[in-house]
Amino acid sequence: MENRKLKNSELDRKSVEEFKEASKTPIIVILDNIRSLNNIGSVFRTADAFLIQKIYLCGITAQPPHKDIQKTALGATETVAWEYAEDVLKLVEKLKKDKIKVFSIEQAEGAVMLNNFQPPGGETCAVVFGNEVKGVQQKVVSASDGIIEIPQLGSKHSLNIAVSTGVVLWDLFVKISSNKK
User: Fold this and answer.
1) Which parts of the chain are beta strand (E)?
2) In sequence order, what are the residues at sequence separation of 6 or more whose Cβ sits closer than 8 angstroms to the Cβ of residue 110?
3) Model-level pTM?
4) Is the Cα torsion angle 49, 50, 53, 59 positive or negative in sign?
5) CB atoms within 10 A of CB 90
6) What is the pLDDT of residues 8-36, one digit of tens each?
7) What would the pLDDT profile of 121-136 be if each residue is shown by its tens digit?
């Protein structure tokens, strides 16, 4: 059996307007002090793929428009809602006051493995991703409602920030989508 690859024109993708009007997956992504502009762009592209509600760019995380973000985002900065927040801890506290559960993606005591984590049903949750070297700041981990760890079995025990975001968003998207049925 031959499986013909689909052309872009056959993929039934949303226009920018359709994306903005579409019902969103109740997930907020928080990027704290991400240095790589290519990683930032990749996160935007992944957020677009799963109709993520919003991205917060914090600290030194660069903001669109920037050619290196655009190179990997491929236009997703035009579809995914985003906002800059200088202080990630203040943002976390604000979101928690707004009844949004905040989870740090980190290797820490008391972490729940991603495969065992169940997102809060019917509620928006936020996931915090830290920078490429030091991860999520301890003060943010401590302020979070919980910590989620991506199970890893190899020798490196770390993933690229864009890869981590893809893994976590896919997992949460599947769990949230199956809960709606």
Assistant:
1) 25-32, 52-58, 82-85, 101-105, 112-113, 125-129, 146-149
2) 147
3) 0.96
4) negative
5) 11
6) 889 989 999 999 999 999 999 999 999 99
7) 889 999 999 999 999 9
CB-based contacts of 135: which residues, under 8 Å, 6+ apart? 106, 107
120 CB-near residues (< 8 Å, 6+ apart): 101
Q: At what angle do helices 37-49 and 161-180 cross, to 10 degrees?
A: 10
What's the DSSP call for residue 78? G
Could you identify the residue written with the tokens 């893809």?
Answer: 166
Instruction: For residue 118, give every residue at least 6 positions away whose Cβ sits within 8 Å of its Cβ, in sequence order, or none.
Output: 175
Judge if the upstream peptide bond of residue 65 is cis by omega within 30 degrees of 0: yes
Query: Alpha-carbon torsion 38, 173, 149, 146, what sign?
Result: positive
Give residues with Cβ within 8 angstroms of 51, minimum separation 6.
19, 22, 23, 24, 25
Ramachandran assignment for 59, one of left (phi > 0), alpha (psi -120 to 50 degrees), beta (any other): left
Residues 38, 43: Cα–Cα separation, whole Å: 9
* Secondary structure of residue 114 in the 3-state scheme: helix
